[in-house]
Amino acid sequence: MDKDKKIKVLYFAGSGRSGSTILNIILGNHPHIFGGGELQNMGQVYNANKICSCQSPLIHCEFWSSVVNDWSSKIEEDNITSGFKKWSEVEGVFSIKSWVKMYFGIGKKDAQFKEYLKSTSEFLRSVQQHSKKKVLVDISKNPLRAWALEENPDIDLRMVHLVRDGRAVTWSLKRTAERQNRKRPTWRAAMFWALINRMTNLVRSKVEHRTLVRYEDFIENPGLVLNQIGEMAEIDFTDIINNIDKNDDFRIDHVMAGNGIRKADTIKFETTKTDGWIKKLNSRSKNIFKILSYSSLKKFNYR
Ligand SMILES: [Zn+2]
């Protein structure tokens, strides 16, 4: 397919709690970019009364309901739910079967996989048409979805492996669990963080246009990191960098899933402290994390 006709997707892969929602909002203020959120979760949230950042339930949101109706009219499916289910069959990040199939290229000529590719491209094309933006940001994070997008002849994938210190991720997961009266053991968070980043490393090696970004570096020097992403994605971020320098407001599009900050009207890029966990995470948890994920921490230059 002609490169210009392909849908350019700027995809963020890696662990959750890594700051992708903020990046999604900031990049979505570029005149050619639409930042829709975690697009892989559309199937889960669409019929579940989940709220879009515009405050409407997704099924009533003017934007997403038009996108989904348009998409479902173009795929041969009985209903929306079964259409989305096909995505999760290919993209199941914790399914060994899905990884084996992708790794060895099994079933790539099957009708089922072709249908999956078509369904994904029709959905993204619908987002492109309704948003009237050329480039789509997808912060699904799932590395297997990134791999499937790379295999899709209609997609021009630009992949950012976004990583944040796993101890900050652990602290964030623990805090949420606490609020819901659950427990999130450190060992589980550490294993999850190391595993998902290893999976993302593997996929990164299979993708042509890709870059590795640390969230802490983005907060420290947003201009440098945005230029790095821009160079890889062939997008000029000068205006966005100027907006950050001027401490402008960033408006929020119809973001369908992700961090709660998306529910504000606008956000500012604040040099939010990224090291709050250092004081809050207890030393036992820090030690457990270091023992279990030492090599991954080192690999991403975390001490
Ligand atoms: Zn909306």
TrEMBL record:
One of its GO terms (molecular function) is N-acetylglucosamine 6-O-sulfotransferase activity. Signal peptide: none annotated. It comes from the Bacteria. InterPro entries: Gal/GlcNAc/GalNAc_ST, P-loop_NTPase. GO terms for biological process: N-acetylglucosamine metabolic process; sulfur compound metabolic process. This is Sulfotransferase. It comes from Saonia flava.
